[in-house]
């Protein structure tokens, strides 16, 4: 284990990334545990207020993210400072993304259906961090040989093509494939060639005069949602807590 850690993490300078990712995941899990205890009225925890204003944990999260980010940029990848700032950055990002839905909606939607977006953002970020840690580089540039890397045209073509596929996948409503496609271009290609979801800009632009394509897109989206929405919601409820139905209806 020590040899693997030295060879694959410390030697390539990935220790700050590992520490940041670990701090991020642990912070999210601990934060969700505390908020669920507060929600249930258990434990010694409670909401933090100042002058009658509820202080959401996204506030210290932003402060820690700024400190950790600037500190990491100013530090060497191999020094103690980089490791310490990486932990601070990971904690900050964990606190911020745990309330991602609040930032998105500019409302306290933590325990509503809209609050699920926070859990989705955390899962997506953790997965991307894991891919980067395992050696994947944005747009798959790490797959090129040394001779190809010296050819600027090849690199520009690879990055440009991968970005185009990711952009098409995004406009088709394949958000996860578009995001992961930045790291694994093959996923972006899959998202780009598959049918768009019926409520996306791509469908509104290109399926208006193609009723068969639109009908196929609606049918595929229906079967996809029917198959995956239930399991995804159960996993999110297990990980982040089940939303409050009354609050969700009230918000709408």
Indicate the topology:
Blueprint: H1 2-10, H2 15-40, E1 49-50, E2 53-54, H3 58-73, H4 80-98, H5 100-105, H6 116-134, H7 146-150, H8 152-171, H9 175-181, H10 185-193, H11 201-206, H12 211-240, H13 245-251
Could you list some keywords that capture this structure?
single chain, 252 residues, mainly alpha, two-stranded antiparallel ribbon, 13 helices, disordered C terminus
Strand content: under 5%
Count of helix runs: 13
Helical fraction equals over 70%
Let me know the largest β-sheet.
Answer: 2 strands, antiparallel
Count of β-strands: 2
Protein name: Integral membrane protein
Transmembrane segments: 15-34, 54-73, 80-107, 119-141, 153-171, 177-196
Keywords: Membrane, Transmembrane, Transmembrane helix
Overall description:
There is one protein chain. With 252 residues, the protein is an all-alpha fold. The protein has a domain at 1-135. Helices cover 71% and strands 2% of the residues. The protein has helices at 2-10, 15-40, 58-73, 80-98, 100-105, 116-134, 146-150, 152-171, 175-181, 185-193, 201-206, 211-240, 245-251; strands at 49-50, 53-54. It has a two-stranded antiparallel ribbon with strand order 1-2. Helix 2 (15-40) packs parallel to helix 4, helix 3 (58-73) runs antiparallel to helix 4 (80-98) and helix 8 (152-171) packs antiparallel against helix 9. It starts with a helix and ends with a helix. Mean pLDDT is 87; it is low at 248-252. Keywords: Membrane, Transmembrane, Transmembrane helix. The chain crosses the membrane at residues 15-34, 54-73, 80-107, 119-141, 153-171, 177-196.
């Amino acid at each position: 284990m020590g040899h693997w850690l030295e060879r694959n993490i410390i030697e390539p300078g990935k220790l700050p990334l590992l520490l940041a990712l670990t701090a991020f995941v642990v912070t999210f899990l601990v934060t969700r545990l505390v908020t669920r205890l507060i929600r249930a009225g258990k434990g010694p925890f409670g909401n933090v207020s100042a002058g009658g204003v509820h202080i959401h944990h996204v506030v210290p999260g932003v402060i820690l993210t700024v400190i950790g980010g600037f500190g990491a940029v100013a530090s060497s990848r191999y020094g103690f400072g980089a490791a310490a700032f990486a932990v601070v950055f990971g904690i900050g990002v964990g606190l911020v993304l745990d309330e991602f839905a609040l930032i998105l909606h500019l409302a306290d939607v933590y325990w509503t259906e809209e609050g699920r977006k926070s859990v989705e953002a955390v899962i997506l970020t953790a997965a991307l961090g894991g891919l980067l840690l395992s050696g994947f580089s944005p747009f798959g540039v790490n797959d090129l040989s040394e001779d190809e890397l010296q050819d600027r045209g090849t690199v520009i073509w690879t990055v440009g093509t991968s970005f185009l596929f990711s952009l098409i996948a995004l406009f088709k409503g394949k958000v996860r494939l578009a995001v992961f496609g930045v790291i694994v271009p093959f996923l972006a290609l899959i998202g780009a060639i598959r049918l768009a979801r019926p409520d996306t800009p791509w469908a509104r632009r290109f399926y208006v005069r193609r009723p068969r394509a639109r009908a196929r897109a609606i049918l595929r989206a229906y079967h996809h949602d029917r198959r995956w929405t239930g399991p995804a919601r159960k996993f999110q409820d297990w990980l982040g807590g089940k939303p409050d139905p009354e609050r969700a209806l009230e918000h709408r």
